[in-house]
């Protein structure tokens, strides 16, 4: 009687462990799919792939401009902010080009190097942009990214999705997939050992 209860409990435990492993594998596959349709296209479409050194030539704050609507945004997301324009000398090409914060900055407003987050207090926005401009004037040499193919003559300060970020995004689903497969393999080994011991 006790042996039957132990066997039943063992089968239930194996079933739960098997379901856990399969669930982990399924969740990891969904995460792979989500990353593949969101982050990977942005990474592959970016032409600013090569790192070089940029030297600041001038950093000026122009009159206020309006943040243009991105696709699908509403009118209330338009807000005025001082336009910071940073011109740099690219070491790789020796050209004088405009610097943008990320790829998204160029797409949203090609007139400005930096687009702040929407803040209710315009003084905070102005103070932040002035602080960024002073930092550029203080640290005049820094790494940046340019397009080696030449389709884009401007440069960006940082990529939205660098290679390290892409690998980090794939790290968690990979760990979950490996853990799920390991659980499934251990359950199958346990079942095989049980059958083998019972046959002997």
From TrEMBL:
**Primary location recorded for the protein, binned into one broad class:** membrane
Q: How does it sit in the membrane?
A: Multi-pass membrane protein
- What GO terms describe the biological role, i.e. biological process, of this protein? detection of calcium ion
The residues forming the signal peptide are none
State the InterPro entries in the record: K_chnl_Ca-activ_BK_bsu
List, in alphabetical order, the Gene Ontology terms for molecular function in this entry.
calcium-activated potassium channel activity; potassium channel regulator activity
Determine the domain of life of the protein's source: Eukaryota
Question: What is one term from the GO cellular component aspect held by the record?
Answer: voltage-gated potassium channel complex
Enumerate the subcellular locations listed in this protein's record, separating them with semicolons: Membrane
Spans traversing the lipid bilayer: 20-43, 166-187
User: Cross-referenced Pfam families, in alphabetical order?
Assistant: CaKB
Q: Which UniProt keyword terms apply here? A: Glycoprotein, Ion channel, Ion transport, Membrane, Transmembrane, Transmembrane helix, Transport
Q: Does the keyword Ion transport apply?
A: yes
Q: Which family does it belong to?
A: Belongs to the KCNMB (TC 8.A.14.1) family. KCNMB1 subfamily.
Q: What is this protein called?
A: KCMB1 protein
Source species: Chaetops frenatus (Rufous rock-jumper)
